[in-house]
Specification:
Blueprint (H helix, E strand, L loop, with lengths): L6 H15 L1 H17 L13 H10 L8 H26 L2 H4 L2
Helix pairs in contact: 1-2, 3-4
Length: 104
């Protein structure tokens, strides 16, 4: 390793040395990084910031980890949201119906 090496070259040399000298240390460090990434607090997704249904679709997908959704996925998310809202409305209507309304 020399001062004239690029950062990537120095990094590779360091990684090669650690892998040769202490492979268990690499495994331990990678395990800790994986856990830290998994436990990192998720970005707060504020649906109140959405200005239209497309932005709601994007935020819905981002809320489950789909960071950069494509347009087809966004449209499917919008439709899934619409279906969900309709289901909630049916639940509400059923809960509001009187027992005689249910007998047909």
């Amino acid at each position: 390793m020399t001062c004239r090496q690029s950062g990537a070259e120095r990094g590779k040399d360091i990684l090669d040395k650690v892998c040769d000298d202490a492979p268990a240390k690499i495994v331990d460090t990678l395990g800790k990084l994986a856990v830290a990434e998994r436990l990192a607090p998720e970005e707060k997704i504020d649906f109140n910031e959405a200005k239209n249904m497309r932005e709601i679709g994007v935020k819905l997908l981002q809320s489950i980890g789909f960071r950069e959704p494509d347009e087809d996925s966004i449209q499917l998310a919008i439709q899934a949201n619409n279906d969900f809202i309709m289901t909630l409305k049916r639940i509400h209507q059923c809960a509001q119906a009187s027992p005689e309304d249910e007998i047909h």
